[in-house]
Amino acid sequence: MNFENFKDGNHFSIGVELELRILNRFSLTLENEYDYIVENIDEKYKKNLACEFLNSMIEINTPIFRYEKDLLEYLKQIIGKMDKIAKKKSLCLQTSGSYAQENTNVKVNTNKRYEELFEEHQILLQNFSICGTHVHIGFEDFDKALKAYNYSIYYLPLFVALSASSVFFNNINSGIHSYRTKIFDRLPKASIPDYFDSFEDMKNLYDTLYDSKVITSGKDIWWDVRIQPKFKTVEFRVCDAVHDFDRLETIISLLKGICQLSQIKPLEKYPMQILKQNMWSATRYSMDGSMITKDGLKPIREGLNDLNKQLLENNFISKEGFEKNTNIIQKQSISQEMLNVYERTNNLKEVERLGVFE
Predict the structure, then answer these.
(1) Is 143 within 8 Å of 252 (Cβ atoms)?
(2) Are 3 and 61 in contact (CB under 8 A)?
(3) I need a surface site. Which of 4, 54, 287, 288 has the fewest CB within 10 A?
(4) pTM over 0.85
């Protein structure tokens, strides 16, 4: 299989894949209107939209940017264009890690790859109405990307906590703040990946999976973080979908910062059981969870604040960026806000409304 040991990439460039739902504007129920949105969008945006597993979903793939503010401005523009189209048919655009109301009117896209995935995974892909945010950070070459890949594995729970927005799923309060993460964990090629020592080690695994017909391409690897030779990026796939642009800016800023730290800091590997336990705490409690560190148990908020300070001390973020990040870190998670809304209203429609783009 073609798994490239790349060079000449765009160092620390950023890009985002953001998955959205298409809903009825009034009932906030799922609507299978992917084709309608794509057919009516301005031609210049078509190449940045893609289908997802369900026909009631649509994915935005941003161009490559250097600065977070430019990427966010692009997202606001394209979502604004899509929303104008949606309103003409009494639709709206919304996102969160999982669909809170009952999963009715669910239709798998007529796409050969998705049909094959559904045939392979059976009940695991039923009611797969979940949305994620994928962040790509560019690298000059594979070796630098591998440093960031390995270094970031320990920090992934911080970003589950920051993005958690999937406590309700299919009319059920799961009690798990990022239930989307646990839905994905059921799949055999998902979840926390292993450390790799070299390009050859990673390529050998990909080749073995490919030769065994377990995967047909690198797209079939759904780890929480993976290297994308095609784009010359490290792709962080661990986040729930985020509708709050300020929160998304912090997520991108901190992920980019981890990648920068990885180039100057030594790698400390953690046992898989510790990595899994830390991930569980983040998925279960989001911003109120804790992580096992070399110095003992530490609240996730404290870990995020420590990371933010490291980035400021190494001049990887500005003072303004540090203060913006601090403000988001101090806030409750989206999932906790969802729980508060449901406790106040006893209405999942009001929970769903939190993620609507206006």
Answers:
(1) no
(2) no
(3) 4
(4) yes
